[in-house]
Specification:
heterodimer, A: alpha/beta, Rossmann fold, 9-stranded mixed β-sheet, B: alpha/beta, 2 domains, 5-stranded parallel β-sheet
Amino acid sequence: MKVLVPVKRVIDYNVKVRVKADGSGVDLANVKMSMNPFDEIAVEQAIRLREAGKADEVVAVSIGVKQSQETLRTALAMGADRAILVIAADDVHTDIEPLAVAKILKAIVDEEQPGIVLAGKQAIDNDMNATGQMLSALLGWSQGTFASELDVDGDSATVTREVDGGLQTIKVKMPAIITVDLRLNEPRYASLPNIMKAKKKPLDEKTAADYGVDVTPRLEIVGTTEPEARAAGIKVGSVDELVEKLKEAGAV
Amino acid sequence: MAVLLLAEVTDGELALDATAKAVTAAAKLGDVTALCAGANAAAAGEAAAKIEGVSKVLVAEDASLGHRLAEPTAALIASLAGDYEHIVAPATTDAKNVLPRVAALLDVMVISDVSGVVDGNTFERPIYAGNAIQTVKSSDSKKVVSFRTSTFDAAGEDGSASVETIGAAADPALSEWVEDKVAASDRPELTSAGVVVSGGRGVGSEESFALIETLADKLGAAVGASRAAVDSGYAPNDWQVGQTGKVVAPDLYVAVGISGAIQHLAGMKDSKIIVAINKDEEAPIFQVADFGLVADLFDAVPELTEKLG
């Protein structure tokens, strides 16, 4: 079985986000970029499936600007076997919408015929939480979102999902789209020898046009602003003072 | 302009708070029809009919709709979509599971976690863990939108909408429910509680989390946790507050032993009053706290519990 893992290049989760002065978005020029943390978990799970003998090939895909090949090299260094880069934008500030990403991924799935797609549940830039579900709809496949446990067994997979009330376990028919949550696994670090090896692994370069997908956004960005800052508070010196302040504020 | 709102129904029961908050947002877009779907949904439908701003309720009962599985629920909504310009829901994990699937079936973009309605096509939503607010204008003929419930007030309960029963769509039979693990609790629900007490990595163990729970019970509060506390196994996943957990905006939020990573702040910084207790005076949580107490939580929390009330 082949595993397909879409990975996204996003601003590193430790970097302080700055809104561009013209309101068009967040400043991404000369900012540290990394693989979306949820996608790292998906890559790790794909590699574990291969290590467990349940998968024989892990293919990483990234859709975006040319620089996304760095993200793919990270996936290859972690252990993915090969990569597909789909260039769909020139400007690093262009975010390809989940619907267009799902359409490109569908075309890749049609070509590659994976038995499972493992994706991050959301990207930490647009926080849309949509691509996996959309791909699943376009393919007419089953979906297991927000997975914290995954057990692939032949023609079905058991997925434990993190939901508002606690945990839900479902059984999905294969092939399936699984979107992964934080507690599925702890992604490995790429070792230096593996980083060197990754440079020689195959990386195909394609464009959105190769798959006949129109990536024109459906959502026009009208403006981007900083959220209102909270007014600075005070430090209290003791529990007594805290209780007093809370009573004054009518909070208790 | 007609709006179809997917009501939050769990095991036949309407989640009134989340649904009524989404109705407030949806009513800005047009006439609201609430869809209650489940193996049993009639009682939920009756409850939804009382929410002010709901003009009609559709009740769909079928075994395939019983456990909020995405595929049959999305198929049902897509089959109804022709009559509506907006398809909306509260931004719960169920809706986030279902709505993007609906949007793709309709070949439109989904707009998740909307915190403000500008007009029928234009919406505000937080991005980058709430570090920026983006206004987006949709060019799609249908808008599929989830609303962040913490930013809308719940609609009242004096309504009297008509209730109509409809059938389910054909079940794609792609997945089946196995089990739910839901902890029973007498505490208020996290996303609608007036007071939330949350613990972080500083709490140190699952056993010590009892300190947080005791304080919460004294305040009649819900219990929350940071990602670090959940990852470390101190607290269950459904207590997580933050970018990828729950978003809360209670009147009082007490953060104990939480450093205040941006991912956590994303889930609680709209709280009215924030109290932080942390022994590290440099912890970023103090930058958003109205009242900060630099202290060892193992001393301060029992003392606070005792001195309140």
